[in-house]
């Protein structure tokens, strides 16, 4: 299994949704503190990438890798931020993030009149559809070596 967890933030840094599938190590801090650290790190990395890039950065920051995991980033034009942590060998993750946004988030959150985009997502339908979508992904079933 190579997908570890997913964060969805709004443009101002509110954690709208968090899910995990194969997270073996916990951070030791609250989910709220972890979300603040994640959002702050993303803001800093995006700023750093824009300032040091020798070329025009149309797409900006996309991902980073460590020896244990990779963090993949997708931002919508409206400022929603999707962050997916995977195994370092996972491929086509940006496309998966786009599909999560288009096929799950838009369908079960944006088009749902009961969902308020200024509050964390509580829709059980969204949660179940996201879980099923991620688990059917070819990335989900890969083994780490």
Q: What order do the strands of the largest sheet run in, or round the barrel if closed?
A: 2-1-5-4-3
* Rg over C-alpha atoms, rounded to the nearest angstrom: 15 Å
**How many beta-strand runs?**
5
CA-based shape = globular
Structural class: alpha+beta
Largest sheet: 5 strands, antiparallel
Helix content: 25-40%
Low-confidence runs of at least 5 consecutive residues: none
Individual helix count: 3
Mean pLDDT reading? 87
User: In what range is the share of β-strand residues?
Assistant: 15-25%
Pfam families: Sybindin
Family: Belongs to the TRAPP small subunits family. BET5 subfamily.
Subcellular location: Endoplasmic reticulum; Golgi apparatus, cis-Golgi network
Protein name: Trafficking protein particle complex subunit
């Amino acid at each position: 299994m190579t997908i570890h967890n997913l964060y969805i933030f709004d443009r101002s840094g509110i954690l709208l949704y968090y899910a995990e599938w194969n997270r073996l190590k916990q951070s030791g801090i609250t989910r709220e503190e972890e979300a603040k650290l994640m959002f702050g790190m993303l803001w800093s990395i995006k700023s750093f990438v824009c300032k040091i890039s020798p070329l025009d950065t149309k797409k900006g920051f996309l991902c980073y890798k460590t020896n244990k995991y990779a963090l993949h980033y997708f931002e919508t034009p409206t400022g929603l931020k999707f962050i997916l942590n995977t195994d370092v060998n996972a491929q086509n993750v940006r496309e998966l993030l786009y599909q999560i946004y288009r096929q799950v988030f838009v369908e079960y959150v944006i088009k749902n009149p009961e969902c308020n985009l200024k509050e964390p997502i509580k829709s059980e339908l969204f949660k179940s559809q996201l879980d099923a979508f991620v688990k059917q992904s070819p990335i989900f079933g890969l083994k780490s070596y």
